[in-house]
Amino acid sequence: MIYVYLLCSPTFIRICKKGAVEQYSATPYLTTLINCMFWVLYGMPWVHPNSTLILTINVAGTLIELVFVTLFLIYSDKKKRVKVASVVVGEVIIMVVLTVLVLTLLHTIHRRSMVVGIICVIFCAMTYASPLSVMKLVIRTKSVEYMPVSLSLATLANCVTWTCYAFLPYDPFILIPSVLGIALSVFRLILYATYYKSTVEAAQKDAETGRLSLDTVGNGHSHNHNIEIPDV
């Protein structure tokens, strides 16, 4: 699971090198952030005992996503920066309010697990569905440049693993979003296979256009150097 979080690292290396977020969307990172925070709450001993694996993985995920969101804020324009910062503040407020309500209004482990588990399922589904904006971009541009296949494959493997874990013992709150994640990952891979060829062709065309431009500039400089200056 941690490997899945770190798969976004190349994207942020590219953003740092270019000094801009380009067409990348903050939505996947924001939804993953709040999803991890909800699962941290779910894994707490007073909500769902014996969930050490869920707790540790999602604490790590929360820290990683905070780093990614911070980088997104640094390299965004002012309008996008304000929007992302507002969402982060809103997510923190939601988490604080939810934690207080769960601990004060729900007095049994069963109730706490059920309520927080349902919320986790909803937001986990949102996390897996958040790349829909990227899928829309892929369909519109007929390019998979902004949808790395490694992330789709890793997400698929991760969801399959969590699906198996959900039966040891049976936990519907882990099973439901994992099955949904499998379905969405398969759909993304289908999109990748569909538009990979057109992406390569577009990249080759851009490269050829760049070479032609350089040749034109080069020829122009050569022509200028060959101009004869008449004797005075």
Q: Helicity level, as a percent range?
A: over 70%
Strand content: under 5%
Q: How many helices does DSSP assign?
A: 9
Provide the succession of SSEs: HHHHHHHHH
* Radius of gyration over all CA atoms, rounded: 24 Å
Main sheet, how many strands, which sense, barrel?
none
Structure notes:
Helix content is 80%, strand content 0%. The protein has helices spanning 2-6, 9-18, 27-43, 52-74, 78-105, 109-129, 132-141, 149-165, 172-225. The chain is globular.
Question: How would you summarize the topology of this molecule?
Answer:
Layout: H1 2-6, H2 9-18, H3 27-43, H4 52-74, H5 78-105, H6 109-129, H7 132-141, H8 149-165, H9 172-225
Which labels suit this protein?
single chain, 0% strand, mainly alpha, 232 residues, 9 helices, disordered C terminus
Short description:
The protein has 232 residues and is an all-alpha fold.
